Amino acid sequence: MSDYHHGVQVLEINDGTRVISTVSTAIVGMVCTASDADAETFPVNKPVLITNVQSAIAKAGKKGTLAASLQAIADQSKPVTVVVRVEDGTGDDEETKLAQTVSNIIGTTDENGQYTGLKALLRIFMKGDHSITSIEIG
């Protein structure tokens, strides 16, 4: 156990040509709401791979959490991001709307066997090979 290292380890190589690659710790995954987002760019309950966060903000709409979340990410770094957009809850009162929104974010398996919400996001990251090349969208 003397070789155990908890956390991220950085190996710096100072000679020769180096290939820059994306590692699994550099991928951001999130589930957001955005009722006015572009439906083609951000279909409901479908994981979307974003390699340019700043350009995706323009199609994220103004309502919900998607645009603000993407902007917060872009303010800090430029990671590869996977987004699942879910619908806002509906109902007669705010408590019902909030409960339904939370349920949409958590997700489930629909009648067609498709994952929704966090389950759709989890399916991508639990494929075994945690590299960007292993992500299958759809």
From TrEMBL:
Residues covered by the Tail sheath protein Gp18-like domain: 26-86
Record-linked InterPro entries: Gp18_domIII_N (IPR054564), Tail_sheath_structural (IPR052042)
PANTHER family per record: PHAGE TAIL SHEATH PROTEIN (PTHR35861:SF1), PTHR35861
Listed name of the protein: GpF1
GN (gene name): gpF1
